[in-house]
Amino acid sequence: MPTCPLCASGDTHFYHRDRRREYHQCHCCSLVFVPPVFRLGPEEERAVYDLHENSPDDEGYRRFLARLAEPLGEKLAPGARGLDFGAGPGPTLSVMFEEAGHPMAIYDPFYAPDDTVLVGEYDFITATEVVEHLFAPGRELARLTGLLRAAGWLGVMTKRVTDREAFTRWHYILDPTHVAFFSEATFCWLADEWGMTVEFPAADVVLFQKN
Asked: Sorted alphabetically, which SUPFAM superfamilies does this protein's record hold (predicted)?
C-alpha cells in the first residue's frame, strides 16, 4: 500500500476507485489521498489552473473567500503581517486583507514562485483551496507552521471528507488536481501533532493557532 503523504505512515488501505484513479486512506491521520501514479504532471496541472478565472473584481469570489477572511480577521491585531500561500493566477484574498490594513506576501509555485517569502515570519498564513492539491501535504504544512510567529494563525479552506458513501458521489474528487482530502479528524490529528489549537468556524474553514 502507498505511504501516507501527510504523516508518512505505511498503515494505509484502499478507500475508493473511480474510472480514472484510486483513493487510499491512512489509518493514522485519516487522510484520503491519491497515490502518486495517478497524479498529473506539472504541465497538465498548470493547464487546469490556467482555466481559473478568479479576480479581486469578482464579488462572488470575494464572498466565497470571506468565509475564511472574516473569522480570521477578527482574531488579528491591527497591522498583522500575512502570507497567502497558493494564491493562484488571480490573487484576491491577499487584496482583501491588505484592504483591511494587513501587509501581505503571496506565494504560488506556478504564478508567484518567489521562495524568498518562505523564509520570513508571519502573524498569519492563509491557504484557501490549496491543501487538496498538495502532493506532499505533510512537508508543505510543516513548512508553513514553521513560518508562524508565536500565537500566529494558519487559516485553511478546503472541503472535508465525511464518510465513504458520500465520497463516492462527491464532486470534489472529479477535479484531477485534487489529490489530498482532509476530514475533521485529520485536522484534529494535525493540531495534536503540531501542539496547536484548532477551530472550525464555518463549513470548509479551519483555523489553527500556534501555542
From this structure: S-adenosyl-L-methionine-dependent methyltransferases
